[in-house]
Amino acid sequence: MHTQSFKVIAFDADDTLWVNEPYYQETEKQFCELMLPYIEAHALSKELYNTEMQNIPIYGYGIKAFMHSMIETALRVTNKSIDPVVIESIINLGKEMLNKPIVLLEGVEEVLKKLSESKVKMIVATKGDLLDQERKLEKSNLEDYFHHVEIMSEKNEKGYLKLLAHLDIQQEEFLMIGNSIRSDITPVLNIGAYAIHVPYHTTWEHEKNASIEKNEDNFVQVSQLTDVIQVLGYN
Questions:
Q1: At what angle do helices 21-34 and 41-59 cross, to 10 degrees?
Q2: Pair 107, 224: CB distance under 8 Å
Q3: In 3-state terms, what secondary structure has residue 125?
Q4: Alpha carbon distance 219, 216 (integer Å)
Q5: pLDDT tens sequence across 38-52
Q6: Assigned CATH class of 3-19+104-231
Q7: How far apart are CA 180 and CA 21, in angstroms?
Q8: What's the whole-model pTM score?
Q9: What is the CATH number of domain 21-98?
Q10: DSSP characters for 133-184?
Q11: Quick one: which of 10, 56, 73, 214 could link to 125 by a disulfide (CB 3.0–4.6 Å)?
Q12: Are the C-beta atoms of residues 176 and 196 closer than 8 Å to each other?
């Protein structure tokens, strides 16, 4: 791989550029603590996950969707007998998530600065709530590095092909960099584009259990984001 081979390099946002999943796990733990008078934590987590999966086609991804799913789960497992004060506390958990600080992952600015020296256009391609992702990007102070920001409703083959058509480029001119095999890697490889996988130490359950047949021609897995510099010929 080399930057000269690509017209666009896309970065996932959550858990690729900045911390995200740990905030969800922290909030889920607090949710379980709130609900202990009604249901034990392991059972509640399972119920919450099932609710999230059912709600993805309705709400999509992001903190607001997660908050809706927590409230819906709380109402269901208590047969709507839950104290309204607990519902208010769940809403406050969601608001606290929306106000979490943006913590950049190690090496992010180093990589973006290095790649900005080339002629390749860099974009953000991420899932989530539009307002929330725009807020996070603004607070990250990374906006100036990116030519375009795409908030995708679903990161699948159809979504990526639509993105490439919008960018007016061919599959072989597109490189995706991200932490999720399911969302950032597999669909990109399936359409004939290129991908670099940067694993993150924790992953949402929905993004697990995905695998790929590694093809050295269009796929590389690195241990940390700064390795991208060497992979793309900047060493």
A1: 120
A2: yes
A3: strand
A4: 5
A5: 999 999 999 999 999
A6: alpha beta
A7: 12
A8: 0.88
A9: 1.10.150.240
A10: HHHHHHHHT-GGG-SEEEE-S--SHHHHHHHHHHHT--GGGEEEEES-IIII
A11: 10
A12: yes
Domains 3-19+104-231 and 21-98 share a fold: no
Tokens read off for 136 = 């996070």
Tens of pLDDT along 56-98?
Answer: 999 988 899 999 999 999 999 999 999 999 999 999 999 999 9
Tell me the β-bridge partners of 219. Answer: 195
What residues does each domain of the chain span?
A: 3-19+104-231, 21-98
Closest CA to 179 of 191, 192, 195: 195
The predicted-structure confidence for 108-144, as pLDDT tens digits, reads as follows: 999 999 999 888 999 999 998 888 889 999 999 999 9
